[in-house]
């Protein structure tokens, strides 16, 4: 579904992504792992059109995305849940969700709103509440719900567990699995490698702008380097 080939991204003179290549199959959850500064968020910004590559190709089902503005990429079926949630703090929950559907002109927005409320019943309870007064977990739910209102074929998730307690993390990841089972392909950036690999089918490990390990999620969970550096296990 998504193909990234030999992608190079620069910030001025800084070479942030150094020729990375990977693919996300339709219907899959793919995890992109790595420490801070590895290039994970930069990768998502390139896919979503916020950053333009100096070299390389990004394709969605064969269509080249290079050079397209972010709003056009959203209309093609890619939505992003950014790191830090970034909900519209002064708008209500309902307003935020409606903003997610701003590019749509079909008659099924109300149906998708009910889908979001089914996934996140707490949002339905708080639909008239100002988003800035929600808890961190509720804001993460809202950010995911807002992205789903664009009816994406591919959902980009950037650190969805950041700042959340263990119980909320489990709930968010269970919901991510549900979203995928309902037909949405997912590219997941996550520092909590254990949780990410528990729901993904395939994973890639980024270090300083390069992919250094790639395999099925199951094999990565057994890989000694991944276990030591990203799963926090003692390897003997």
Describe the overall structure.
This protein is an alpha/beta fold and 236 residues long. The protein has a domain of 126 residues: P-loop containing nucleotide triphosphate hydrolases (Rossmann fold), CATH 3.40.50. The chain is built from ten helices and ten strands. The strands form two sheets. Strands 6-7-8-3-9-10 form a six-stranded mixed sheet, sandwiched between helices. Strands 2-1-4-5 form a four-stranded antiparallel sheet, with helices on one face. A hairpin with a 2-residue loop joins strand 9 and strand 10. Helix 3 runs parallel beside helix 6. The model has no long low-confidence stretch (mean pLDDT 93).
Write a compact overview of the structure shown:
With 236 residues, the chain is α/β, with parallel strands linked by helices. 36% of the residues lie in helices and 26% in strands.
């Amino acid at each position: 579904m998504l193909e990234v080939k030999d992608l190079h991204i620069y910030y001025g003179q800084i070479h942030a992504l150094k020729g990375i290549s990977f693919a996300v199959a339709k219907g899959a959850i793919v995890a992109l792992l790595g420490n801070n500064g590895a290039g994970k968020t930069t990768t998502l910004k390139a896919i979503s059109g916020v950053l333009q590559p100096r070299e390389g190709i990004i394709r969605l089902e064969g269509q080249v995305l290079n050079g397209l503005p972010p709003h056009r990429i959203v209309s093609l079926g890619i939505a992003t849940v950014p790191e830090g949630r970034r909900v519209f703090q002064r708008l209500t929950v309902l307003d935020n969700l409606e903003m997610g559907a701003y590019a749509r002109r079909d008659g099924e927005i109300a149906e998708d709103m009910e889908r979001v409320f089914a996934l996140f019943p707490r949002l339905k309870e708080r639909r008239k509440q100002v988003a800035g007064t929600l808890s961190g977990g509720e804001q993460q739910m809202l950010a995911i719900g807002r992205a789903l209102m664009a009816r994406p074929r591919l959902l980009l998730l950037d650190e969805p567990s950041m700042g959340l307690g263990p119980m909320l993390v489990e709930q968010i990841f269970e919901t991510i699995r549900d979203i995928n089972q309902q037909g949405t392909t997912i590219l997941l950036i996550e520092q909590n490698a254990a949780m990410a690999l528990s729901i993904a089918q395939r994973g890639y490990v980024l270090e300083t702008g390069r992919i250094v390990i790639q395999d099925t999620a199951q094999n990565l969970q057994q890989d000694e380097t991944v276990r030591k550096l990203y799963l926090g296990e003692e390897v003997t």
